[in-house]
């Protein structure tokens, strides 16, 4: 099968980007697909070459080609509009003038106007509602321009979701039962496959985490007695960072530290941490391909998400034997047993309940160990190979649906 995969970034250091990288590798290797990546940046992935799609001849099966899509600076809305236009123009150029063809166009979310298959990793319809709530919240710290821009950005993306997701010719898959339910509620789609993300349990394991723990903590100046929390993500507001900071502020007597990792604007949250007297308790790092090193430095993973279609770092932390805290608004919670292999907050903004849970986990290392061990066992059932097999079946069904009937 010859696939055009449209995703702005592909790497192994983020949630959606990592899921696409793992999928592309397996579709090429195990299902001998010819993959053409239309992306602005590709890392951590073995590539077969460039610009093969412009040839009228099919490349060897099991190949992955990258067609670099230019990017422009500016606000997110301008960047997104340019991205959608340019990747569409480049694919059209290849098919019209280069003799290229694709059996299907696969997109993780809304990255083009005419996809054949969409794997829904985020639902901007929900993020638009959250942005509206933030604008009404007097405690929100974002500037006026940023609020207006976010409102317009989410409104546009929501309109595009409505156009694409309501089209019955587009095959949809959701990464969690929660996301599938939201797609049914907002777009009246009943034909949605649920295909959860996987975890590389050979790489993310308790043994691997513990083997790197001492060095990972030493480099960050974490002491043995420090109780270290970890949060990973590119939208800290949505991942519940404000709630985590408020919960930490309610625990002044604990040697508690917070490691925040991702590519978000840190100034607003640093100001909030300083207001709460937590400036010296927080460490901020950019995303890194060495994700295991982050889990090795932590005692608990905490992300009381306000909205998260899945929450891959939660699953990876569980595979590493870390007790993980999330909320009912994260898709990964569908696959967790609260209090058994993790902890699920009913209300993501409930800082009081979170602070009590953190105090309990800090004072009971045996509880952390037992929950971590159960989490690691749960995750053994999740696998990127199983994820790829389910998506391969989805692609075959979508291709059969697209063929003209006799």
Task: Describe the structure in brief.
With 406 residues, the protein is α/β, with parallel strands linked by helices. 45% of the residues lie in helices and 15% in strands. The protein contains 14 helices and 16 strands.
SSE layout and pairing:
Elements (H helix, E strand, L loop, with lengths): L1 E5 L2 E2 L4 H15 L4 E6 L1 E2 L6 E2 L13 E5 L7 H22 L6 E4 L9 E4 L3 H13 L7 H22 L5 E4 L2 H11 L5 E2 L11 H14 L7 E6 L3 H4 L1 H9 L6 E6 L5 H9 L6 E4 L5 H7 L2 E3 L9 H8 L4 E4 L15 E3 L5 H13 L1 H15 L4 H19 L4
Parallel strand pairs: 1-3, 1-7, 2-4, 3-6, 5-6, 7-8, 8-9, 9-10, 11-12, 11-14, 12-13, 14-15, 15-16
Strand content: 15-25%
Overall CATH architecture of the largest domain? 3-Layer(aba) Sandwich
Q: Provide the helix percentage.
A: 40-55%
CATH superfamily of the largest domain: Glycogen Phosphorylase B
Q: Give the strand tally.
A: 16
Distance between the termini: 22 Å
Shape: globular
CATH level 1 class label of the largest domain: Alpha Beta
**Rg over C-alpha atoms, rounded to the nearest angstrom:** 22 Å
CATH fold topology of the largest domain: Rossmann fold
Order of strands, widest sheet: 5-6-3-1-7-8-9-10
Which structural class should the secondary elements be placed in?
A: alpha/beta
What is the multimeric organization of the chains shown? single chain
Order of secondary-structure elements: EEHEEEEHEEHHEHEHEHHEHEHEHEEHHH
Strand count, sense and closure of the main sheet? 8 strands, parallel
User: Domains counted in the coordinates: how many?
Assistant: 2
What's the rounded overall pLDDT mean? 90
- Runs with pLDDT <50, length 5+? 51-57, 136-141
